[in-house]
Structures are given as C-alpha cells and as structure tokens.
Amino acid sequence: MPALVYLHIPKSAGSSHRNYLFDVYGKERVYWYGLNSDDLDFSYDAVAGYEAIGGHRPLDFYPRDFDALFTAVVRDPIKRAVSFFNYCIEPPVVVREEWRAKQRHHIQHWRDTGVDPESMLRSIEKSEELRNQISNYQCRYLSRYENTFEGVRQSLEENNFVVGLFDQIEKFNNFFQTDLAFPTGNRFLVNSAPPGYWRRISQEEGLIDALKELNQHDMALHNYIRVKNKGLYSRSRVNDLVERRVLEHCANMQEQTEWQSPTWGKVQLFSNGLIPFITSAPLTVSIVLSNRNESSIALTTTARRRQCIGWQLQDVNGKPILGACGFAHPKAVVEENQFQSISTTISLEGLHDLDPMPRAIEFCIVDGDNWQNQEYPLNSCWAKLEVPKSS
Known about the structure:
By secondary structure, the chain is an alpha/beta fold.
C-alpha cells in the first residue's frame, strides 16, 4: 500500500512535484488521480502496489485509517487566486492539437460559468464555481473538518503531514532528500504563466480587498506555515517507513548509477579561520561545501543513512586528541556544481579538562562509517580555535 500521498492543490506547484515523483519512482509506480483514473471514491484495491499517490483530491477523500504521509504545498492565497483566474482565461500554451482542443473546451467551460476575462471582480460575482475555487480553498484541501484554519490545525495534528510553501519550495523539495532518502533533487520547473498577468489582473480596483475577505482562513494557514513553522511544517510518525520503501525501491532499480553516493573527491570543505572555543559551550561553526558533482548532495542522518560532517580536535602540533571527535548533523542540500554555506552546532559535552588543550579542529565528510578524508585529503578543512586566556 502506498506510504506517500501528495495533495495537489491547484496552482501550487503540483505538476512539478508529480514529475519529481515520476522521476524517482517511475511513472508506473505512482497512482495519479486525473491520469490513472477520475474516481471520486477512494479504493484500496485501485492503489495497491503503488509507491505513491497524488492528484487533485483533498485530505478527506482518503480514509481516516489510511496511515500514510500526506504532503502538500500551500501558496499565498491572493497570488493563488489571481493565478487560478488567469488559468481560466489564458491557460499555458501547448503544442499538440489534442491538448489545444482541450484548452478551447476549458476556456469555454469557464465562460459558460460566468467568468469575464475583462474583470476578475465581475467573474467572482457571476461564477459560483470560480468563487468556490478561490475562497479558502487550501483549507478545504487540508481539513477533515470545517474549511477553516482551525479545522486544518486539528487535521495536521491527527495525521502525518509535511506542508511546504510555494514561495519557499526549495525547503519542501529538500525535505524529500534529507528526510525521505529521495536520491535526486526536484529538477522540474514550476509551471509559469505568461509574463505580466499578475499586474494586469491585480490592479483592478477593489480586487485585492475582495480576495482578502474571501480567504481569511487561507491567509491564516499560509502565515502559520511561513512564520510559525519557518516555511516547512513537518509532523510525522511514518518518515522511517517512507525512507525504507524509497531505499528498497532504489536498490531494486536495474540502473544503479544514478542512485549511488556522490564522488567525494569532487567535494571540498572550507571553514572560517578562527573559531571561539570554550569547553563548557557548544561550538557554532559555518562550513562552505563545494559540490563539483553532476548531482546534488544531501547531508542527513536518519536510522538508515548518514552523510554528515565529522570533526576532530587537534593539539598545537596538529595531532588528533584521542577521543575528542564526533559528528555534526546539519540538514542541507547542495546542488550540482554549486557551493553553499552550512551552519551547524558541535556538542562538546563530556570533553572537559582536555590535555593537551585543543588548538585546532578538522572537518570532513562522513558517508556511513567512512571518513572521506582518509581517501580524499582535500575533503577536509581546518580552523584554529581561539582559547580564552586564563584570568
């Protein structure tokens, strides 16, 4: 039975994420409502044998006893509403004739409901279907109760959930690599509308105020994810299950090359030259990771994987101090042929009255149980420790 569900809220990066799931699992292992079927009732038999489910189906479409990880992306409700209206009157340009025919039917459908391409305000007034699609619609997707922010809060607490933000989509995408063992990053772009549509539509007098009135609960939800949860809500008991299923799937792939560890010889670390050092306090350090691989690198530590940063204290002569070593576990994704500054904290608990006194610290990548500086010396970086003078 699938362990991962994507709740595709319309106009919130769903097509990009669908292609990402296809890329990782294979299209034949992802059940997508709207492609595999248009069923309006959930069937365990229909989705059995798939690794993931997605499509335009809200949370309450799925049974309460379906213990999967539900994922979704929410968007600023005003921007989402304007984007949806633009989609109704001017959908993306397509090439194939059968798709163009569907688009013509799509545009005519919305005209028949009362949508006026010249005015979003008049369209909201005349088209009940449009009004429903842009009024607290995201709360409707994520709640098993009322279509309110409080209904969503209760649903989030009762289910396994990861919710990201459209305008901070990299945090949502990175979660799949750092916490769920997805072997590659999301390389698929979010669908883009023709340039200038926002300014052309949103400048209609009174429109923004009307949309705010229609989306008070969606605005509270968006603010909750953005401020309270810093762009990513995560509360789940089944991450380990999803990770295990992903790793098993990758192990069964016939072509293994894309799923192997990075070439660590193409990774280099750089650190600040001087770090304040007090044995009774943790060290806060910033390390720059340069990734010259052709794929992204995910630093993460879970029950089944460890790709992290190891550290070793050294004396004044650069020799390792016995037992003064450990691991830092930042969560970060560094894209291919990029470099990124990574902040992390090192616990020095239990390291008191060291003799000799540490004067430097070495960092390197650790993959599983392997310290990569043993094979790739340039994988390491060092920093001098600034030890306070005795009073």
